[in-house]
Design brief:
Length: 290
């Protein structure tokens, strides 16, 4: 991770941002997210033991005096959300200069940080040709470094079928599923969206592409090499072919947008060359994701 991006000032800005969950969350342990469960935000519900990184203002000092342990006061209307982050680790994500993978990892870290800061529970899932590898369940800001280590150690290799991979994951009902990928994948994206919706997920798709993938500037005779299969093809790039590519990419992104909108989901396309702060504070905010 770049120290210039994840410096103290950057995380200070993230302190006031939390991942918005548009569904009503009525189950789960107590946490930092508001729900429409019986009671109000000022009605005391329970205690839980303090975890490093928790808001010290919630510490019950009377309980500390009795038990010599730190406990947080929790309230009836506050419930944790369960958030799954699905990180595409196919080789296409490191094609070129590897900037797509870096952006995807950074976004995974940002979502994780915001969720943990909001007392939500997070699981990070890396996906490769071998299937899906889930992390342990993280909760509390004190676990962020463990989550960061899991993200940093992701191995980008082979191809990924997003639908087949995510179907192997047991999903908690009324949770949040964030998929970060270029979506150049085998399998049905529409089927994946329907599967997540059937499992009552709040769905967020983040498509990460390079500048050259969004607006390629090539012409003439070229040799194209598939980054995942290593298959090669010699072709002559013409304006007509570039137009066809533009139409195909637009159809892919518009198709995902329409399908996600049908199920109340969100879609954001980002360039791997964009500043992370712009992606977070402009694009994600504009779509109501944060």
């Amino acid at each position: 991770m770049s120290n210039k991006v994840f410096d103290g000032e950057f995380f200070k800005n993230l302190e006031n941002i939390s991942l918005k969950a548009r569904m009503t969350i009525n189950n789960g342990a107590a946490g930092g997210r508001r729900s429409k469960a019986k009671g109000s935000s000022v009605e005391f519900s329970d205690f839980r033991e303090y975890t490093p990184g928790d808001d010290f203002r919630r510490i019950d000092w009377n309980a500390y005096g009795r038990f010599e342990k730190l406990f947080l006061k929790l309230f009836m209307e506050e419930r944790e959300a369960y958030i799954n982050i699905f990180l595409d680790c196919s080789k296409s994500m490191i094609a070129g200069d590897g900037s797509k993978a870096m952006m995807a990892q950074r976004l995974s870290a940002v979502f994780t940080y915001m969720a943990l800061n909001n007392l939500d529970r997070v699981c990070i899932n890396t996906m490769t040709s071998k299937g899906i590898t889930p992390s342990s369940s993280f909760m509390g800001k004190g676990t962020f470094q463990q989550a960061l280590s899991f993200i940093e150690n992701a191995n980008f290799n082979g191809s990924t079928n997003l639908w087949d991979s995510i179907k192997k994951k047991q999903l908690k009902s009324r949770a949040v599923s964030i998929v970060i990928s270029d979506f150049f994948t085998e399998g049905s994206i529409e089927g994946l969206i329907k599967y997540l919706a059937f499992n009552k997920q709040q769905i967020v798709f983040i498509q990460v592409l390079t500048k050259d993938e969004i607006s390629p500037e090539i012409d003439g005779q070229v040799r194209l090499v598939d980054s995942e299969t290593k298959e090669e093809i010699n072709i002559t790039i013409t304006p007509k072919m570039m137009k066809a590519y533009e139409v195909k990419l637009k159809a892919l992104t518009n198709g995902m947008k329409e399908q996600l909108k049908r199920y109340g989901g969100s879609f954001v396309q980002v360039s791997s060359e964009e500043e992370l702060q712009k992606v977070i504070f402009e694009k994600l905010s504009k779509e109501g994701i944060i």
